[in-house]
Design goal:
Blueprint lengths: L1 E5 L6 H11 L3 E3 L2 E3 L13 E3 L2 H9 L3 E7 L2 E6 H7 L4 E5 L2 H10 L4 E6 L3 H11 L4 H14 L8 E4 L3 H16 L2 H14 L2
Parallel strand pairs: 1-7, 1-8, 2-7, 3-4, 8-9
Antiparallel strand pairs: 3-6, 5-6
Helix pairs in contact: 1-7
The structure holds adenosine-5'-diphosphate (ADP) and guanosine-5'-monophosphate (5GP).
The site of guanosine-5'-monophosphate has 14 residues, from β5, β6 and α4.
């Protein structure tokens, strides 16, 4: 299954996902390509595949992406190869923006989409500042984009308000576990049980 997690920058997507990956088995992270420069804490191939604009555009030309978008002035995209690799035997989570989420939903209508909201604007601002990874101009741009992005929550299957981290993590895990229990997804497991009754 494909899970799409979206929300304004600083809403807590990476933090929540880190906890989910520790807690749940059978779920993997889709590492996007980006032209954004790496932050100090980031490693190539772990948070992102960091590439230059020429390489990103070559990949667009080769139709290598499932979706891509320009976010805060940089290119970001999910490669087809990444989806194929990560969805082998496990569920895959995409941490992508609203434009990308729209493209994924069109391509994979069965994808489960989750929107992460911060508890309030002032808290989003505080979290972006305290994260200490972006300069003031970048933070201002991210906050401006956030005002536009939050209006998109309606197109998502689920909304999580990331006030207390532990609750937000539990809620995302509940979404994933709930989706795995859907009758259509469980079919193979159910068959084994029913066969044992024959
Ligand atoms: P995103 O991936 O959505 O851009 P991050 O996961 O980097 O956001 O979170 C932004 C900042 O907010 C980080 O410094 C993180 O530690 C902090 N943070 C995330 N969730 C919470 C929370 N529930 N309460 C307080 N701080 C949080
Ligand atoms: P950041 O620079 O803070 O890591 O990410 C900025 C924004 O880009 C976030 O909203 C994040 O979800 C989004 N993003 C990350 N990877 C992708 C991707 O592959 N495609 C799209 N469309 N957005 C992405």
């Amino acid at each position: 299954m494909i899970f799409v997690v979206t929300g304004p920058s600083g809403s807590g997507k990476s933090t929540i996902l880190r906890c989910v990956f520790k807690d749940l088995r059978g779920v993997d992270f889709s590492v996007s390509h980006t032209t954004r420069p790496p932050r100090e804490s980031e490693r190539n191939g772990r948070e992102y595949h960091f590439v230059d604009e020429a390489e990103f555009k070559r990949m667009i030309g080769r139709q290598a992406f499932v979706e891509w978008a320009v976010v805060h002035g940089h290119y970001y995209g999910t490669s087809k190869a990444e989806i194929v690799l990560k969805s082998r035997g496990s569920d895959v989570i995409l941490d992508i923006d609203v434009q990308g989420a729209r493209q994924v939903r069109e391509r994979f209508p069965q994808a489960v989409s989750v929107f992460i909201l911060p508890p309030k604007f002032a808290e989003l601002k505080r979290r972006l500042r305290d994260r200490g990874e972006d300069d003031p101009a970048t933070i201002a741009l991210r906050l401006k984009t956030a005002r536009r992005e939050i209006r998109e929550y309606k197109s998502f299957d689920y909304v999580i308000i990331n006030d207390r981290l532990d609750r937000a993590v539990l809620e995302l895990e509940a979404v994933i576990l709930g989706a795995r229990c859907r009758t259509s997804v469980r079919r193979r497991g159910i068959k084994a049980v029913l066969d044992s009754f024959l």
